[in-house]
Amino acid sequence: MIRPWNSFSRSLLFTALAALGSSASWADDETAYFSELPVVASVSRLPQRIADAPTAVTVIDRELIKASGARDLSDVFRLVPGFQTFPNNTEAAQVTYHGMSDGEYSPRLQVLVDGRSLYSPLFSNGVNWATIPVALEDIERIEVVRGTNAVSYGSNAFLGVINIITVDPALAHGFSVSASHGSQNVRDYGLRVGGRIGEVGDFRLTYRQQNDDALNNRGDWIDDFRSRLFDLRADIAIDAMNALQLNAGRVEGVTGIGRLNGGMFFGQSTNPIRSLRQTDTYAQLLWRHVVSPMADFQLRYAYVSDRSDDAFNIVVPFVPPQTFHINQSGDEGNRHELEFLHNLKLASAGRLAWGASWREDSLRSEWVLPGQGTVRRDTTRVFGNWEAKPATWLTTNVGLAGENDSLAGFLWSPRVSANFHVNSDNTLRIGYSRAHRTGSIYDYRGDYWSSLTKYQYKADSNMPAEELDTWEIGYLGNWRAWRASLDVRLFDETMRNRLYVIDRDASSPVRDSVPSLTTPIQDVRIVGGEYQFKWQPFEPTRLVLTQSFAKIESDYQASALAYPYGTLGQLTANQNIEALTERSMPRRSTSLLWMQTLPFGIQFSLAGYWQDKMKWSANSWSPKYRRFDSRLAYPFRVGGINAEVAYVVQSLNGAHGEYKAYDGTGNDPDGTGRIVDRRQWISLRLDF
Q: Which position among 502, 522, 566, 619 has the lowest Cβ density within 10 Å, counted as fewest Cβ atoms?
């Protein structure tokens, strides 16, 4: 049940206001001080100091990525307040912000690599973390926008944005090799080479492969995983005013799927052991042109092709025998995207970033789009962000975007915020924004039978988009004398038309003729607060503490409850889906990272994660857990070669569940859980 602003909400607001009570006096040179604050460009598409940005931003640098001990990119976001993730298993890892974790992918969180969106028409208009096209060692930094940003990145930047910025090739000259071997058959290898392109540019070419036998104690499920990545980035300076950036590559993820004791049909398994092969092939060309010291623009084109396949055959002993080819993920999705962005300074009126984009998505699937061939979807968008500083103590941001979608119609996304620089150490921010999330091509056009007699799914071509109104209050404290900073965000997010797939009631006498469909089922409210605290008490010591607190409430829409023969008519299904919404984010979660430089340059880090129980799916729970990861590394130099040997242990404290039901004893009696047990490996890297 959604309730009005209550004591829980007010107490969070008072917490932020009280933090301003310890404010110091104005610094003598405000400009010099703020110039040392991190500069980000992911919020408004303008380079801004974090103190001027219209919403909260977490910056994860290369040192934090390395210290986290992460092997997969998804693990890194455990360090960001409000984020949840689980590791690869029979399903690709997921990363969410403020829950709402529908389906197999992450459809409400925009993910970018060097400006290119990883949303895919193939993967339900979401992100497939099994085919992330970037190696951890190639990441310069990650800017995480904690809050909606549809103004800057389109309708599906719904709850947040992850912007991954890779290393400049000019800083990656030479030859680097790495290898990691460890438990659960971890076998990872990497190779990177970089150098000059004549007299005009630089390039970086990376190969990376990962292999493991997956999680322990997984019942009769099979979920080993391997991936291969080839990635190229080349930067070319045409002249003093023009530059080109080229990105291209391919990543393949192969997951072992199926069950040893799956259902049988004429003596053959309906879920046999097999490989799910998914690939992502991409290319991007970016042209930057400096018009004057006051203005520049960029033109970007990107192409992505995603494919998936897990085919197997079932032979039915008719006379004569017939072979049925089953390939439920045998699909292909493609995307073409063209974007223009213009940044300029408006003299005393502030700065403006505006632009326009066009995108064509296409999906071909003989399974869920039978007889429809290739289904196409066009989206055009115009957007703008204006930053103004009418006074030294005030920064304002106003943004507006309009988007026309050939399947979803026209959508507006506005944003307005004001940042009050109380003094040189403290900034208070208040803002409002509206965002939309549209469904996938499957949601609008899917129509298929899973057998000759079973109508599986029928789309609604008039399905409305989700709508999100966000109010937030933020506080940023940055204290140079103490080498510490505090970032607090309080949020009130109201979502209307939460989209969900309503299944058929299996007990209905007409169940085989009533299809499932994606439809608005709930209105949702997410209220809470989060903070991140960074402190360097001594030169060799760094601490990063984050916490989030949230409460989610929901109300069913009458039309969803009235869907004939739908599972929402059953009390148990109704309660399960309500719980999935309201516990899709833990009520409380905490992370703590300690980084320590020891004698002889040895690097030590310890990360701890504490998370309340939550739900990733309607019929299971992820229990409350705690987890500790550690890394010990020794960088050295031998014969003119820079090298590093490292020992990493994940889940030092042993087995626990992070995805589905787990009884807390190390057992998984029903085979539905995924047990994260201790994993350790040794790595060696050589830089020539």
A: 619
DSSP assignment string, 204-250? EEEEEEEEE---BS-TTB---EEEEEEEEEEEEE-SSSEEEEEEEEE
- d(C-alpha 550, C-alpha 586), whole Å: 7
What is the per-residue pLDDT across 311-356, written as a single tens digit (0 to 9) for each?
888 887 777 877 777 777 778 999 999 999 999 999 888 999 999 9
Tokens found for residue 537: 């008490």
The closest of 465, 462, 517 to 496, measured between CA atoms, is 465
Query: Which helix H or strand E contains 265, and what residues bound it?
Result: strand 264-265
**What is the rounded CA–CA span in Å between residue 83 and residue 80?**
6
pLDDT for residue 289: 96
Domain extent listing, the chain: 7-687
Q: How many CB atoms lie within 10 A of CB 386?
A: 18
| Cβ atoms < 10 Å from Cβ of 125 | 25
Q: Which CATH class name applies to 7-687?
A: mainly beta
Q: Are 558 and 518 in contact (CB under 8 A)?
A: no
* Nearest-angstrom CA–CA distance, 49 and 615: 36
Contact assessment for residue 218 and residue 668, using Cβ atoms and an 8 Å cutoff: yes
Nearest to 303 by CA among 254, 356, 247: 247
Please state whether 214 falls in left (phi above 0), alpha (psi between -120 and 50) or beta.
left
CA gyration radius, the chain: 25
CA 41 to chain centre: 18
Spatial distance between the Cα atoms of 221 and 673, rounded to a whole number of angstroms: 9
Backbone angles phi, psi at 478, to 5 degrees: -135, 110
What would the two tokens of residue 79 be?
């360090």
With CA atoms as reference, report the closest residue to 518 among 408, 379, 412, 375.
408
Residue type for position 356 = A
Which residues are paired to 475 by β-bridges? 428, 488
173: left (phi over 0), alpha (psi -120 to 50) or beta: beta
pTM above threshold 0.70 = yes
